[in-house]
């Protein structure tokens, strides 16, 4: 019960978000776009997969190094002994997150009702002005414009990003010593999606380079980039295929997994920034790796035509600001003072070893 109590503010915020989104959908007559359970099944399966990957990549090797005769069985027993006091809170938190993301997608699909005018021309012009008249994607294309590099970026941009989006909260949810970091991470994540992904996105409604031609009628400005990306059509994680899927959902006016078009600011860059900020509190090496990953996602968001450069800049600044703001709140709040304090690992140990300390 004490462990559940630590996460209560996170559940309360999701409940408030749920009620607000439901009320908005009724007020604007868009209840068909309110689907608060659309991600629940997929999210829980993904979370279970993350736990399995952690077991196989971290716990089983630890058993093997200790020369266990039953490395898998010993790994399962050891993992359960570590997480059993957090098992029920973990289940609650994962359900919470699955509902939160479902509600976010619902609101994202309502944004065109609030902001029917696309602002792509102004944002693209400002982004070019910010880079002294150069078009950012063309500058990157000199280095990244090779199919093998693009395919690698597509892999980082979708499956790896989704794995971290699901896996990092799972890791924080099972670690009792990371209670404050868990609260800070999840609260910041919630605010990033609500403030940046809903409110700011409505104010700067845009489709991004991938949909520039559809929303402005100018098919030439980013036509060369879109034509290049088409080479990956039919391949796993193809940005071109996903962009066609999203536009088909938009034209059909239907809510599907991942549907909704909103480029400014970039939540991909926002979450990659948050991964790095939280990762350094788990271990220094993880923080450094995730910082490099954040840079790759920022560059990839431009190269794959998902975002203008300014989308990433806004996300980076906004996410760091919210992280600092929430950190100040968590440190000063009496509610979280009783929670165990996380320690920054400076040893380079892997996550499994850190968990056992």
Structural description of this entry:
72% of the residues lie in helices and 0% in strands. It has one domain. Helix 2 runs parallel beside helix 9 (179-203), helix 5 packs across helix 8 and helix 13 (267-279) packs across helix 15 (309-332). The protein has 17 helices and no strands. Residues 342-357 have low confidence and may be disordered. With 357 residues, the protein is mainly α.
Low-confidence stretches: 342-357
Cα end-to-end separation:
24 Å
Helix/strand-derived class?
mainly alpha
Secondary-structure element string: HHHHHHHHHHHHHHHHH
State the major sheet: none
Please tally the helical runs, counting DSSP H or I stretches of 4 or more residues.
Answer: 17
Shape: globular
Strand percentage: under 5%
- Counting DSSP E segments of at least 2 residues, the number of strands comes to 0
Compute the number of structural domains. 1
Rg of Cα set: 21 Å
Chain-averaged pLDDT = 87
The helix content, as a percent range, equals over 70%
Oligomer: single chain
């Amino acid at each position: 019960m004490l462990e559940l109590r630590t996460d209560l503010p996170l559940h309360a915020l999701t409940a408030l978000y749920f009620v607000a989104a439901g009320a908005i959908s009724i007020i604007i007559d868009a209840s068909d776009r309110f689907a608060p359970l659309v991600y629940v099944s997929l999210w829980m399966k993904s979370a279970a997969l993350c736990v399995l990957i952690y077991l196989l990549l971290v716990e089983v090797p630890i058993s093997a190094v200790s020369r266990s005769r039953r490395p898998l069985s010993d790994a399962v027993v050891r993992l359960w002994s570590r997480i059993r006091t957090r098992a029920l809170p973990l289940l609650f938190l994962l359900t919470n997150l699955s509902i939160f993301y479902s509600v976010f997608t619902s609101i994202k699909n309502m944004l065109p009702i609030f902001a029917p005018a696309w602002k792509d021309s102004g944002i693209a012009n400002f982004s070019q002005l910010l880079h002294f008249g150069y078009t950012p994607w063309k500058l990157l294309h000199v280095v990244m414009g090779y199919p093998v590099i693009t395919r690698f970026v597509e892999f980082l941009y979708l499956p790896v990003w989704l794995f971290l989006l699901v896996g990092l909260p799972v890791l924080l949810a099972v670690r009792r010593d990371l209670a404050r970091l868990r609260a800070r991470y999840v609260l910041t994540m919630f605010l990033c999606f609500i403030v940046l992904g809903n409110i700011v996105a409505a104010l700067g409604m845009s489709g991004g380079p991938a949909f520039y031609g559809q929303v402005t009628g100018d098919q030439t400005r980013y036509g060369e980039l879109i034509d290049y990306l088409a080479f990956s059509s039919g391949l796993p994680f193809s940005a071109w295929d996903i962009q066609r899927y999203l536009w088909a959902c938009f034209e059909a006016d239907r809510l599907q997994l991942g549907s909704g078009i909103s480029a400014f600011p970039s939540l991909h860059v926002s979450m990659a920034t948050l991964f790095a900020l939280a990762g350094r509190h788990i271990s220094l090496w993880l923080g450094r790796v995730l910082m490099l990953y954040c840079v790759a996602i920022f560059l990839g968001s431009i190269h794959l035509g998902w975002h203008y450069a300014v989308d990433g800049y806004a996300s980076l600044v906004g996410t760091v600001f919210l992280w600092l703001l929430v950190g100040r709140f968590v440190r000063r709040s009496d509610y979280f003072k009783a929670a165990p304090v996380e320690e920054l690992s400076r040893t380079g140990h892997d996550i499994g070893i850190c968990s056992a300390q």
